[in-house]
Amino acid sequence: xxxxxxxxxxxxxxxxxxxxxxxxxxxxxxxxxxxxxxxxxxxxxxxxxxxxxxxxxxxxxxxxxxxxxxxxxxxxxxxxxxxxxxxxxxxxxxxxxxxxxxxxxxxxxxxxxxxxxxxxxxxxxxxxxxxxxxxxxxxxxxxxxxxxxxxxxxxxxxxxxxxxxxxxxxxxxxx
Length: 175
Hints:
By secondary structure, the protein is an alpha+beta fold. It is built from 2 helices and 10 strands; from the N terminus they run αβββββββββαβ.
């Protein structure tokens, strides 16, 4: 009887651990990442700038300070429509009103700050592209599938923004 009770307890612990591991594994890949670099008109990094990411639906926000290389990173960003605001004394404020974040994707929003008063602002109206990593199929034979072209940014990107879409892999020479 004692062996059966010990076995039951051990079995319960193992089942609980397996259930917890399965639950934690299911949690991966439910958020995205927004990152970028701030630079001044000469291309130098802007350190210690305040970068705010605001969810437009919930109005909740989080703020990061750029590092010495002018970089900021927002991780574990829930899917949704966001606004990025940048403020730094000696520069005009910059707003990117629409950054659509999807699950398991990374979005790079590099911004060039313009000299001016914080009360002046620049609004970036271009779409923000995502960074995609994976293997480019050999069957592409120099053409880009419609699904990839649909996500590309068209038009002129203003000097105050640099929108990046990168795909890692090998592109055939005929491309």
